[in-house]
Design goal:
3 helices; flat; eleven-stranded mixed beta sheet; ten-stranded parallel beta sheet
Length: 351
């Protein structure tokens, strides 16, 4: 594609040498690594310093971006440079399909399972009794789809995913390699002799439409009822979602977060990496939880940002962190003042 064609396709406004608009773009690159013939973008102010020096032939920028004088690149003004870059990336770098077409001869399909005619099931995959695999869905190599599990249309289930019995997936769900959906929740009751008796985990996991879950993430089945992942939720790798958790629509959760049982998370929340949430609490809509925060109690007011352990509103927590960093100097100053006071008291007492 030429720069002119990309500008027209993205409805962007080109700024730069007119003669360069017919330059062919055959790859995308980071702004600091781009070479002639590549397209890049600027969305993060941290990379502003590379804007005038980049060797890229074209740069996607916001419509309000100040442009450097004398740059060789053509700048394409668009509404959202990052989303526009992703569109070009997908077009210039076609995705390799890792899935088998049709049902692989080594797959084990129960006689009572229902596989859509245009679905795919990979090598050594197992589909249990009464399970359903929807239209155009692709099940990767080595997956296990348990009895009575239901997978909707247009899903992608990458290799070695396990979906336990009775769990249900909506349409266009993506589960990356190693996901475990529907393992038993961590429920044990202490007995008089100090041992633990397992609490039966009799519910399911319900995953709604357009959810994507990263590699080696686990979502436990409910003790009773459902563990529910709402429509459009995006979950990173290595996240633990415990039994009876409910995650609201379009919430995003980064890696190594742990969500304890029966916690309810609202819609459009953003949870950063390594956040820990206690059980049986509620998180209001549009809450942002910054990295490594610990959330011991419910957050009831929507739209606020929290940080720290135990988490506090981010601005207050950051002030506390700044004060803590000043403590060593403050202690030295106090000790110095204490010595001065002691010397003054000694002189006064000698009069």
């Amino acid at each position: 594609m030429t720069i002119r064609e990309i500008a027209e396709w993205l409805q962007g406004e080109p700024v730069g040498p007119a003669a360069s608009l017919d330059t062919a773009i055959d790859r995308v690159a980071k702004i600091e690594e781009a070479a002639p013939g590549s397209l890049t973008f600027l969305a993060n102010p941290k990379y502003q310093k590379f804007l005038g020096a980049t060797q890229a032939s074209a740069v996607l920028v916001s419509r309000t971006q100040d442009l450097p004088a004398g740059a060789s690149a053509v700048f394409l003004r668009v509404d959202d440079p990052y989303l526009a870059f992703l569109r070009v990336l997908r077009r210039l770098t076609p995705e390799i399909d890792p899935f088998t077409h049709g049902v692989h001869p080594t797959a084990v399909i129960a006689p009572t399972a229902t596989i859509a005619p245009d679905a795919s099931v990979g090598a050594l995959a197992v589909v249990g009794d009464g399970a359903v695999v929807g239209a155009r869905t692709k099940v990767g190599h080595g997956c296990v789809i348990g009895p009575a599990a239901v997978i909707g249309d247009d899903c992608r289930i990458y290799p070695r995913v396990t979906i336990y019995q009775g769990c249900r997936l909506g349409h266009r769900v993506v589960l990356h390699a190693g996901c475990v959906i529907g393992a038993d929740g961590f429920g044990f009751a202490p007995t008089k002799d100090g041992s633990y008796e397992k609490i039966p985990q009799l519910g399911i996991v319900l995953i709604e439409d357009d959810v994507e879950i990263g590699a080696n993430t686990t979502v436990d089945r409910a003790t009773m009822g459902e563990t529910r992942i709402g429509r459009g939720v995006k979950i990173d790798n290595l996240v633990q979602v415990a039994h009876n958790v409910v995650i609201g629509e379009h919430t995003v959760i980064a890696a190594q977060t742990g969500i304890s049982g029966s916690t309810k998370i609202g819609k459009h929340c953003m949870i950063a990496g390594q956040v820990g949430l206690a059980g049986h609490i509620e998180i209001a809509d549009r809450t942002i939880l910054l990295a490594q925060s610990g959330i011991p109690k419910s957050i009831t007011e929507p739209g606020k940002t929290y940080f720290g352990y135990p988490a506090k509103e981010a601005r207050h927590a950051q002030r506390l962190e700044a004060a803590i960093r000043m403590l060593p100097e403050t202690m030295r100053d106090l000790q110095h003042l204490q010595r001065i006071v002691e010397e003054l008291q000694k002189k006064l007492s000698e009069r």
